Amino acid sequence: MSHWPEQPVNIIIQWLKAHSSSLVVADFGCGDARLAKNVKNKVFSFDLVSNDPSVIACDMSNTPLDASSIDVVVFCLSLMGTNFSSYLEEAHRVLKPSGRLLIAEVKSRFDPNTGGADPKMFSKAISDLGFTSTLKDFSNKMFVLLYFQKKEKENSTRKGIEWPELKPCLYKRR
């Protein structure tokens, strides 16, 4: 990914810089917390394991955040666990009504022609969770950007959401 011509985290950084610095952000699967280091916003950085004191080590399906306390949740190349749907459910829990969900994922994971998930089915599952799609950008050859907004009213029929399987990322040895 370091050889990619464009890094998805930089696009998300630019998105945040174009919006209010008062927005509170949760970066799920933050890695080296690059997002927090490059924006003025208050950012809660989460990863499963970390030696960085600015990163909260936790399971992303159970963060220490209060319900409806976050304006923007980011998943930048971080929907890796087989229980990714529980990460998205946690994002829904912590987001305020009308909060934003920004997802950047490896493009091959959303290519049905090569065994990836159907992006329409993935977007439908997130919509069923209680979000409205605001952006689907497949123009980059390496990754996709999927942006959503949490609906104002709770979706009472959230049980039985059909989540597609996201295939693991395969990296070529160089």
From TrEMBL:
- Give the UniProt record's GO annotations in the biological process aspect: methylation; rRNA processing
- Source organism of the structure: Salix viminalis
CDD domains in alphabetical order: AdoMet_MTases (cd02440)
Name the domain of life this protein comes from: Eukaryota
The UniProt entry, under Pfam families, shows: Methyltransf_8 (PF05148)
> What functional role does this protein have?
Probable methyltransferase required to silence rDNA.
Name under which the protein is recorded: Ribosomal RNA-processing protein 8
User: What does the similarity note say?
Assistant: Belongs to the methyltransferase superfamily. RRP8 family.
Q: Which InterPro entries match?
A: RRP8, SAM-dependent_MTases_sf
A molecular function (GO) held by this record is: methyltransferase activity
GO cellular component terms, A-Z: nucleolus
| Enzyme Commission code(s) on record | 2.1.1.-
Please tell me which top-level EC class this enzyme sits in. Answer: transferase
Alphabetic keyword roster: Methyltransferase, Nucleus, rRNA processing, S-adenosyl-L-methionine, Transferase
Where in or outside the cell it occurs: the entry states: Nucleus, Nucleolus
